[in-house]
Target: rhomboid protease
Amino acid sequence: MEKSSPSMTGGTREAPVNISPAVAANAEGDEIEVLESTDVLAIAPEEVQWKSLFDKFDPENSGFISTERFRDLLATHGSELDPHKLEVLLALADGNSDGKICYQDFVNLMSNKRSNSFRRAILQGSRQLKGCSLRDEVGLGLSQRLVRHVAYETLPREVDRKWYFDSYTYCPPPWFILAITMAEVAVFIYYGIQLDRLVLQVSSPSFLKSPLPYHPQLRAQAWRYFSYIFMHTGIEHLSLNMAMQLLVGVPLEMVHGALRIGLVYVCGALAGSLAVSVTDMTAPVVGSSGGVYALVSAHLANVVMNWSGMKCQFKMFRMAMALVCMSVEFGRA
Model:
């Protein structure tokens, strides 16, 4: 069997045979050669709307369009796009050194997906966006101003902030931190009523008899390694943890999602109980400080590593206050 390629018959191009991977043998039949597949992958449903538009500017079906044709596409259909998304597309066209845009990068942008190669292309074109800061936007609603504030609090690059501003939809909302906080408040109120102690619950003899606090002597009860975060010694302890948890955790979850922030929080809580079980074999543990420390530490590390790019106000003062609050909480423990 000989290798074959699509041929032109009667002016009509034959459809390529979908074989992946392609395998062919030479005339003698003693060698088998694996060919690279050039088939176009099946188009996901959300990509169908962009396929016909891209094909108009790619009549050769090469999978690429030149930056000139890409600009023509934007000039024709730019009014259908969000202004910030149009700016990022223009930056991509201007910053692309190859002179062409591949189909997958085009779909990634339209579908709010970001591959590594696409992100590099965006960063190459980010110089085109420096003159139009997201801070200059006017006429924004309350929810849009909140998203913009979160973008400047957590993201170091202007192109990332614009991308986040365009893409964030509050669906899903930052439910994890809010749910954990409400659960902690509910448990505190419940035990406050049960123990008749709403201010300083730890003063009650029955406080540590609850199944929630972590006891090093009760390590076999595995749920206590995490359940201790729902108990607090008093209203001051709860208030400080709640404030830091909401002020830091909610913006981080809005940017990075509940799964990542939840993983950081849970790992911090587990690390806290494990550390106490090693360093002090007699002290019980309550409070969500372990999870809060993990969130604050992750945020401070991001600020320090991207110091010049972070545009949040009073960076040094806020870092100092966070460290003071963590030190006070650690000292109280």
